[in-house]
Amino acid sequence: MAPPTSVLLPTTTRSPVIEEVAGQLAPTDELLVICDTETDPVADYADEIEKTRVVVAGEPTGCSGKANAIAAGMEAATHDRIVWTDDDFHHPPDWLSGLHTAYERHGPVSELPFFVGRDPLSILLEPVYALGGTLGVYTSDKAWAGAVMFERDDLDVEAFLEELRQTVSDDGLLSEYLDVTPLKRTRRVEIGGTVRATLERHVRFTQIVSHHEPADTAVMGVVTTLLAAFCLLSPVYAAGLVTLLVGGVYAAFGCRRWTALLAYPAILVQVPLMAYALGRRTFVWGGRRYRWHSKFHVEVVS
């Protein structure tokens, strides 16, 4: 039998995910729904659901709203086994039990995101996110905050929370503190909706890598540039090769999406988009604008 578990779910809306997760809790488990303020729509809703408790994190200062919410949730959680999750994907009935089973075999575990676009730009970038956000997380043993399970003894919680309140990326920092085993199990996460929203997300994704793994950013820039040059110089061969590569990644992670056919133009557009993302001084996430000066220097602009 799994030990008592605290599930942390940051959200400000009355998401159906709350009931999805609450329905999977054991009698001794708890679901902490973490919002920003007492006026958020979810603030007086989650308490109506059994084994669910609302935590009001307050406005972030010197960190992202997500990092602030996770820090507040970690401090409020009453159990040693912790799960982080998000409200932007479906949690099937065996989701929590599957994480428990995997933890008993591997220790700290994380599932993988597969990002599905909802606007023209995010649809075009699906192959890029499959390579970086799915394959990259899997091969580099990174944690994904959408579905990660660990215990307090698996990391230095006090030091982690101190740094979490000074940065943007919750899972980017967690990956530095936690030895995690990514499971070859993906969750479909819909992103975008407008081109502007996709640009802001792309800036954030790119800057997370640049602040946490600067060497990886340099390597990624060189590889992407060389691959784009190959695509331009030998378009027929390159189109076939990159499409086969991306199609293989999709198949390896059980994702059936026609967007694998967009691999060639996605590689070409990634070069200017990466330069744009690294050159941006601010980005918007969750309704707030941030200026990320360095890994532990974050300014909440508005």
From TrEMBL:
Signal peptide segment: none
UniProt pathway annotation: Lipid metabolism; sphingolipid metabolism; Sphingolipid metabolism
Keyword Cell membrane applies: no
Transmembrane intervals: 226-252, 258-279
EC number: 2.4.-.-
Glycosyltransferase 2-like domain mapped to chain residues: 17-114
Membrane topology, as annotated: Multi-pass membrane protein
Record's keyword annotation contains Transmembrane: yes
Compartments it resides in: Membrane
GO molecular function annotation: ceramide glucosyltransferase activity
Enzymatic class: transferase
Keywords: Glycosyltransferase, Membrane, Transferase, Transmembrane, Transmembrane helix
GO CC field: membrane
Official protein name in the record: Glycosyltransferase
Source organism: Halospeciosus flavus
